[in-house]
Amino acid sequence: MKVTQIPFKDTGFFSTTMLDYLEQKEAIQSFYNNFPDSLGFHNQIEEKENSHSLQSRFVLVEALKKQYTNVDISDKTQENIELLKLKNTFTITTGHQLNLFTGPLYFLYKIICAINLAEELSQKFTDKNFVPVYWMATEDHDFDEINYFNFEGKKVQWSRNDGGAVGRFSTEGLDAVLAVFATQLGGSKNATYLKELFSKGYLEHNNLADATRYIANELFKEYGLVTLDGDDTSLKQLFIPFIKDELENQTSYKQVSKTIASLKENYKIQVNPREINLFYLSKNSRERIVFENGVYKVNNTSITFSKSEILKAVEENSLDFSPNVIMRPLYQEVVLPNICYLGGGGEIAYWFELKAYFEKVNIPFPILLLRNSVQVVSEKQQKKLHNLGVSHKELFLKQHKLLSKKVLENTAIEIKFKEKIKYLESQFSELKEVAKQTDISFMNAVSAQERKQVKGLENLQKRLIVAEKRRQKDLVERIAALQNELLPNQSLEERQRNFSEYYLAFGDNFIKALKESLKPLDLAFTVLEL
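^ thats the sequence. predicted structure below, dont judge the formating
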């Protein structure tokens, strides 16, 4: 195994928002609290320690014990759950949808980064405990986003009628999905493990939340991962004051809207708040709550409430009220003694909209950490990269730029167009000095001729590249094929592939290699040669 780290900015796959955050640029500093460095973690620990109640900790621990009732829990995970009772214990949290069989590869990367960060902080702050937590997005209702995974370029999909919170979905029908998937796996030892993991996860559990907890536990229990389902009555009761505030005062809408007005001056807005950022959950639906003409209504239903009725409903049936993307982060931070949220670029970007809201409701805003991204390169692929003269950094160039660069490097024709253009521009600068002594029409003529000459050279360069690509057809095809293999659909493979492809090839060594190589505080993209 060999690990290479590349700056996120050199991959071309990360937004200006993320790159400015990593560089701590002034324009974005007001939208986050502490930065993920030693001082930042020290300050965050102090802030959370003084604000998170012991009562909340005990409620959390009891909820977790109930959720793990029928799970083969490891000693390490059990120990971590018990540690959550202590005032000096904090969580490192990541969240993810309940994608079928974990969905895209970055599910693993998120969780391993959380595990590794918890371990690293335990070494830095020896009088504190740190617990990695996977927050399952059980209350989401976008079934089309989670009902499939990709295996060797083919979609393995679960078809069923959907409605309501996905964590409550019955796993009925997943035996048919397994039958299809199993035919693609073969009969190796690693294939047998994957079949058993899928079977025990989905065919021996009644709902998607329990199935996903089982799979996450099986993959990561030796590292003490704690998996949490927020669709829980006792946890929702901790959130009642904030649900009521949202219904009565629309605090999130007011605060987030102000933040967005400032944030959008420099950055793309990820999500927009609604006037009420809550859903109403029933058995087969999750619909928005709206306030119209003095009445609270559940969208697309006949359910209505007066103010007193809905506040009473919150007290009596808090489980029916579900936070949306704006309020879910707050719910997480109310429930957990959390100091750091670890996620992808899109997730971190919408957290930047929330800091003022957290301050208004007096909940500490966590440290935000961009997770490691990973490109896996096999020994065979690395040999090809070496033979083709393509570096890891060059691999992430847009394909037309990569091919142009390589054919020019490989050509015997030595025409240095950049130098020619620079020389041409220097010649025209002398003419411009002469033109200044005449009139504006001559000056314009000189400038126009300069643009024409430079454009002519640029067009010749393009024609040379096209001609060289034809002449070096074999090289072009080999480089393009390899890049397409590593970056399917010209996208990061972590968004396309499922972990099962690499588990089939490497078994548990794949997860161990990730565990060993991912360094979340290095703030870099990881190329992993296996």
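The CA atoms of residues 20 and 395 lie 23 Å apart.
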